């Protein structure tokens, strides 16, 4: 760590860095930032930077508000969009109490705790997110709703299109930040795009997702458009998901791979999926944390609505992708409920905890879904045991409140905050009189 700190201090001097932004995340997943001068960085490494935690969503209770942001030197990067005028760098922080203990409500620490539990069981957790978002002409909208930048569709090549330049600039910026991109393409909705980040350990991936959102927003501003990670911004179009591929490794060996097994999927892999399925409803209020998230889950367009798994079945909640013959490292499972607005630290922690529970308790994997689940009748789905995901945030909170797994993984403070904060959101939503009601009822009743 000392070598890494020395590298950071030397780079700041050599590159003429004028500001260093210290980044951390609140419980909702909003990125927070405080800028310090280069002269303060060495002190920040040894003593941290103090701030009032009670002013940050869910981070502390008011009577224990003093917290310290401790920069992680391994996350140091120059921010490419700042250019050569006042070069600016960033580091992610771990949040601690004044006596040096990890802050229980720091989302990064919640994930670290769960990763440590996996490590104790001999596992390293890797993730690979496919992040969808919409490019709009503006954040303003009229009676017809937000206006996308184009009317293109899945994988469309749009000559001279905004999205081409946008993706090229975004990918180049991400690569400059050390974030490897696997694919980028136009998605199914007008103005909808997807950029997939390369596999990495879950903590690095969660940091990368937070950086990714910032890069996408910055490039959009630079190009005169607006980017949104809202799960369902357009009622008649697909929502934006963050399908996440996951695998556990034991050293250099993929614990999900077993040669000769069905789909090359090991017993550990099957138990992991069983854990995801059994606890899907409980973790839903975190993997899909907004009122709007459930408009995506129940809006069709390949969003999963029912709890089941399948091999290469895009209607299933958990998918076992096509494996590459004789390439054991690529065995993985894909969780399809997660949306692009989730807090990645908390979502990854809960998905990992659910999978580990399946392994610990040796859950049996139910039969796979071989048909398109959406095309089945309700009776057929019931007969096959495909239960629905929560239909609303309120419904998801009922499952969350009763969940020992979620309470244990998040810790009491984060658990209680999520519950209170999301109940408040649901109550505010429920009290609205919507344009739909006015259109339907005002003149008729």
Automatic annotation (TrEMBL):
Pfam families: Gln-synt_C, Gln-synt_N. GO terms for molecular function: ATP binding; glutamine synthetase activity; metal ion binding. InterPro entries: Gln_synt_N (IPR008147), Gln_synt_N_sf (IPR036651), Gln_synth/guanido_kin_cat_dom (IPR014746), Gln_synth_cat_dom (IPR008146), Gln_synth_gly_rich_site (IPR027303), Gln_synth_I (IPR004809). L-glutamate binds at residues 296, 302, 314, 336. SMART domains: Gln-synt_C. SUPFAM superfamilies: Glutamine synthetase, N-terminal domain, Glutamine synthetase/guanido kinase. The keyword Isomerase does not apply. One of its GO terms (biological process) is glutamine biosynthetic process. It is an enzyme of class 6 (ligase). Signal peptide: none annotated. Belongs to the glutamine synthetase family. This is Type I glutamate--ammonia ligase. It comes from Microbacterium protaetiae. The lineage of its organism: Bacteria, Bacillati, Actinomycetota, Actinomycetes, Micrococcales.
